[in-house]
Amino acid sequence: MPSPRKIIHVDMDAFYASVEQRDDPRLRGKPVVVAWRGARSVVCAASYEARPFGVRSAMPALRAERLCPQAIFVAPDFTRYKAVSRQIHAIFARHTDLIEPLSLDEAYLDVTDAKSGLPSATATAEAIRATIFEETELTASAGIAPNKFLAKIASDWNKPNGQFVIRPSQVEAFLTPLDVGKIPGVGKVMQQRLAKLGIRTVGDLRTHPRAALEQRFGRWGGRLYELARGIDERAVSNERELQQISSEDTFAEDLSLEALEADIRRLAGKTWAAYERKSDEERPRVARTIVLKLKTADFRTLTRSLTPQQPPQSERELADIACALRGRVELPDTTRYRLVGVGLSGFVDADSHLVQNDLFGDAP
Questions:
Q1: Most buried residue, 34, 145, 227, 231, by CB count within 10 Å?
Q2: Average pLDDT, stretch 6-35?
Q3: Residue 275: what pLDDT?
């Protein structure tokens, strides 16, 4: 058997809010909410002083203000956050070339053969966190495990400013009592569906055969079967393929589904322009799937998608399909929407797409 990988998931602590507190001493020790003011704004980040009041990222800013009236609201400055993120990634690169960024404030690192020559992945994580603090005055948490799935769970275990290790021999014991909601991708709706089957912990999930889970949940059922056993073969990759190009907008006032056409066509134009810019790169890729994203007035998010036989060939075709996808929304006509987005996904290499067309284009 090959030796287990040594994976670290590094997650900065309340990153945007921590940068603001670092750069403005008046904010230190106070509840800080990073968000634009306004009825349509959502929270980008909340400091640890704001969290005991129930303030969390992605919640409406107005709700955050009600929960914590004394919170100090700061408009986000993503140019500054990106600059700090580059500093942090430069620290990662001193230890490994296998770095997979997930966002500005978190990344996977494969340190199986670390460049720094430290004796263990645990020591490497400690060194990375210490250097981040020394050079940026910010704290980070880390999870160390034999795969990405476990490392991500572990990084949240001793937050903030801590780390947690799951060794290969500890995987089963660690996972068995864990709430299934801790599995990435298992949200509230999925938790409810699993609870109806008597599944509330990962140990409960492990008692269900793969075939039964796949029959009920499709491919995701097979994935759940593997994760319940701590199996995750995904490699850390610093060559992330393009997954989606999209544009979205939040309205000043909630709109009906019928009233969204003009906005859908406008956003389709922005998405198509970005797609054409990507098509001019050295390794062009073809998008095969059109995605319509909607968020209702009560913050329910839904998506509808279509993969036609031939990928869209123009902005107008993209817009027409995105508008038509409204027909797949099965909500009452009285439903109002606060956000709409248009995206392209299902990317394949342009060369392989042409080959497929040559092989099957003339088929009856």
A1: 145
A2: 96
A3: 86
In this prediction, residue 59 carries a pLDDT of 87
* HEC assignment per residue over 109-136: EECCCCCCCCCCHHHHHHHHHHHHHHHH
Describe the crossing of helices 261-279 and 315-324 by its angle, rounded to 10 degrees: 140
pLDDT score of 326: 94
Residues 6+ apart with CB under 8 A from 109: 7, 8, 9, 10, 92, 95, 96, 98, 99, 100, 128, 236
Identity (one letter) of the amino acid at 37? R
Contact 267, 248 (CB under 8 A): yes
Q: Residue 47 and residue 61: Cα distance in Å, rounded?
A: 14
Distance CA 195, CA 202 (A): 12
What pLDDT does residue 361 have? 43
**Do residues 156 and 11 make contact, with C-beta atoms less than 8 angstroms apart?**
yes
Check pLDDT > 50 for residue 151: yes
pLDDT at 189 over 90: no
Please, are residues 276 and 247 in contact by the beta-carbon 8 Å criterion? no
Domains and CATH numbers, the chain: 15-78 (3.40.1170.60), 176-227 (1.10.150.20), 244-360 (3.30.1490.100)
The answer to whether 256 touches 337, Cβ cutoff 8 Å, is yes
Q: Which residues are catalytic?
A: 106
State the pLDDT at residue 279.
60
Q: What are φ and ψ of residue 197, in 5° steps?
A: -95, 5
Q: How many percent of the chain have pLDDT more than 70? A: 92
Model confidence over 228-239: pLDDT tens digits? 999 999 999 876
End-to-end distance of the chain based on CA atoms, in angstroms?
48
Residues annotated as binding site?
A: 11, 105
